[in-house]
Design brief:
single chain; 227 residues; 8-stranded parallel beta sheet; two-stranded antiparallel sheet; 6 helices
């Protein structure tokens, strides 16, 4: 298991150039295709809790609008087949995690290799992504968890992660984010990596496809999707 902590000061240094993506533009779906192309890259996006039951652009008094559709469009523009839907308000993380795990399993059964799939979860969506990781136990499945590995949630805090996990959160986030705790209790984890940004956005980091998290996430995904 590889554990790599990083700290990023994105105000003190120039932003890196966007990673090169050779794939053609992707598409956005509400569920996986029935006849998937095994050569494509599939990305399951699990939004934050504020989006549940909303019109897709809820507004936080503290952080402003959550650009859910803008995030999906950004991923699709970079060549991913994006699978995402707005969850009903109060959706149970464990139950919804089983639904997403079934979606991933469907693609695996259809011949899509696990290295061609990524689950991106933001905040509450990150909690759900942790459940998916624990359920599937796929060593090459990738997870990008944005401010979602909470250290003060008893039920999820006991989950043992599998696959490749990249945790990203901001230093100013007032939530207790503890990726190392999850990594240490997950002996079967293939890779655990964490990035702490210094944008001052707090939990608002995940509300838009800010380059501070988006570019490192894309680079990490692409490096681990090579055949």
């Amino acid at each position: 298991m590889c554990l790599v902590p990083l700290v990023c000061g994105c105000h003190s240094t120039p932003a890196p150039a966007p990673p090169k993506v050779t794939r053609a533009s992707g598409e956005i779906l509400s569920e996986p295709p029935t006849q998937p192309d095994p050569s494509k890259q599939y990305l399951f996006y699990l939004h934050g809790g504020i989006v549940e039951g909303s019109d897709g652009r809820p507004v936080s008094r503290q952080f402003g609008p959550y650009e859910y559709r803008g995030i999906l469009q950004k991923f699709a523009h970079d060549g991913f087949t994006v699978v995402s839907e707005i969850r009903p308000y109060g959706a149970d993380p464990a139950e919804y995690g089983r639904k997403v795990a079934a979606w991933v399993a469907r693609l695996l059964k259809a011949g899509v290799p696990s290295r061609n799939m990524t689950v991106v979860g933001a905040s509450q969506g990150g909690v759900i992504a942790a459940h998916v990781s624990a359920i599937l136990e796929e060593p090459e499945l990738k997870f990008v968890i944005l401010a979602g590995l909470f250290g003060d949630v008893d039920s999820e805090g006991r989950l043992k992660l599998h696959g490749r996990v990249f945790s990203i959160y901001d230093e100013s986030d007032t939530h207790t984010i503890s990726p190392e705790m999850y990594f240490k209790q997950s002996p079967a984890l293939t890779e655990g990596k964490s990035l702490v940004t210094k944008t001052g956005l707090g939990h608002g980091l995940l509300y838009q496809p800010y380059s501070a998290w988006y570019e490192p996430a894309i680079k990490w995904i692409n490096e681990r999707s090579k055949h």
